[in-house]
Every structure is written in structure tokens, then in C-alpha cells.
Amino acid sequence: MCRNIKPLFPFEPPATDDEIRAAALQFVRKISGTTKPSKKNQAACDAAVDAIFVASKTLLDGLVRTGPLKDRATEREKARARNALRFAKAPPPPKAPLLP
Predict the structure, then answer these.
(1) Are 57 and 20 in contact (CB under 8 A)?
(2) Which of 11, 19, 75, 85 sees the fewest Cβ atoms within 10 Å?
(3) How many domains does the chain have?
(4) What is the span of the domain harbouring residue 46?
(5) Of 27, 6, 14, which is closest to residue 60 (Cα–Cα)?
(6) How high is the pLDDT of residue 3?
(7) What is the pLDDT of residues 33-86, one digit of tens each?
(8) Which residues contact 30 (CB under 8 A, 6 or more apart)?
């Protein structure tokens, strides 16, 4: 799945319409394979974003929380720590000795 699409539930405060629309846009960009559709495809992409926004909003409004609420700042720091480990530069491998 696209790394730019962030989980929107269960957070306090709840996800805004702008956050839901941004996730829908990222999803459409991912499955269409383009970040900027051509003029001929713009209407289809816009309609898809609107439909996915409505479906996502309906889903988020209908979900029932069963665990504790998550804090956005805490989750952001966890993601930064994971990325730091993931993208940490490894030391260069030792050079093999030259054979005479």
C-alpha cells in the first residue's frame, strides 16, 4: 500500500474531511499510476476521489473504537524512529585485501 496514506482511525481528534480527501487522492494517484492526470482523465480521477472520500467518510463514521485512542504526535514520533532505523546508513563493507 502507498506509504503516503496514513491510518485515520482511532485518533483524537478524529480525522478531518481534508485528511480523508487527501488519503482518497493518494489512493487514486497510486492506482492510476500518475500524480497529475491528463485533461482527458481529470474528470474520471476527480469522480474517483469524490467516491472514495464518501466511502471512507462513511467507514470512519461507522467504526466503533475497541481500544485506546491514539495520539497523533506519539504516532508521528514512532514513525520517525522507524524511518531512522530503516534509512540509517550502514558502514561501508570492509575492503578485500589485494592479492599479490
Answers:
(1) yes
(2) 85
(3) 1
(4) 15-63
(5) 14
(6) 66
(7) 999 999 999 999 999 999 999 999 999 999 999 989 998 889 889 989 988 888
(8) 1, 2, 5
